[in-house]
Amino acid sequence: MKYKMRKADCTPFGMQDKLHEECGVFGIYVNEKDVDKISPAHDTHTALFALQHRGQEACGIAVNKNGVIKCHKDLGLVNDVFNQEILDGMPGTMAIGHVRYSTTGLQSRENAQPVCITHCKGNLAIAHNGNLVNAGELRKAIELDGGIFRSSSDTEVLAYTIVRERLKCGSIEDAVLNAMYRVQGAYSLLVMSPRKLIAARDPHGFRPLVLGKLYDSYIFASETCALDALGAEFIRDVEPGEVIIIEDGQMRTMKCDIHCNHTTCVFEYIYFARPDSVIDGASVAYARQEAGRYLYEEDPIEADVVIGVPDSGLTAAIGYSKASGIPYDVGLIKNRYIARTFIQPGQDNRERSVRIKLNALRNNLEGKRVVMVDDSIVRGTTCARLVKILRDAGAKEVHMRVSAPPFLHPCFFGTDVPDRKYLIAYGRTVEEIRDLIGVDSLGYLSLEATNKIAVGARCGFCNGCFSGEYPIEVPDTIEKNIFESGIGENA
Fold first, then answer.
1. Of the residues 10, 23, 116, 459, which is catalytic?
2. Is 23 a catalytic site residue?
3. Which of 8, 109, 262, 406 matches a 20 to 30 Å C-alpha distance to 437?
4. Residue 278 belongs to some domain of the structure
């Protein structure tokens, strides 16, 4: 059953013109045979570098040595938060790590993950990718029962829910399984207890999570690219509704019996995941090339060159070029030394900030009819400035093709889609958007084609941000900082 969006409210979006990435999680359990080959903290650090595209606000690593959990986390990129001295001071035989972009909760150190908790039956650390749609309801119940929260993220709500279940059952894995019947929404999560490493994926499988092996040791990661960075072997995807337990170097599984359709977020294939990852059996790079091919089939145009907007539009642009026979070339050069936290120089000079990040290659554009391919248009401000950059470089015509449908609805499962009033596609025709951003023609990928791009995927897709239809019932509204004002205002 699919549920339709009922209201137009969502997270305030600020001035960004791209959707923010998901969070990324990683975990490793070192087998006794591998203790001289693997350093959990160092290898988790390497894996988080590979997952950095999924979150740039904060990161953290928790390690387990003889049942004692030590955590280091802070705001910033992986390279900002960790150094050799910190990693050398985190020995252990288990570790979990996290890179964060906030979809609920403010950007603060308190909201960084992993979340570590000590309770009467032990201690645990949790790393979570996704968003709970009933987090407000769960938090209210915990607070009314005397619970005290240190953060404003839904991950702490998830952690306390698991702890409450742990107090009523005989093992941490049973607590995780029981909690799955209470929480609703998207969660790919790792739980580290004194003796076990546990991975779980929500019954719909909204967010990716994979199982791998490094030597004889088990690892989990949001994407296969993290396994590749360590030279690890991919075993399989964690199944929706599955709980995997690693204890004493051995793996066993449990399954939640909530039966529902497997609906991975389709935007993982369009934008979020790294192109070299494979999600639920489908190559992300091939999916993006397929998106480019469908773009040409649905909206062909005569042109001299196809270019992509770095980095997310490049692979779809290659697909468009192959399908059309129009040569692909480099049209925009990205300055890779500008951090995503680059401070823009004021409202009147925002075009300068775009030029600092992206510059046109005049030799490949001058006098030519250009097809510019990107993964999405959110607010439209950045692509309008890019069009001006291309025209200033001598492009005779600029035709924009978008490898996703128009964004019309909020996401409740971990993607920071803005309030509709910030979405350029809401309430406007394609022709009106074309005129606003200043292109000669504009084409979006159809919803039908979007659902076909992930060739070989062993899943269906959630496309609610495009269609307004969701796999589960969603609240009327969702606030990014839902827990900042206190229980009285969020009841």
1. 23
2. yes
3. 8
4. no
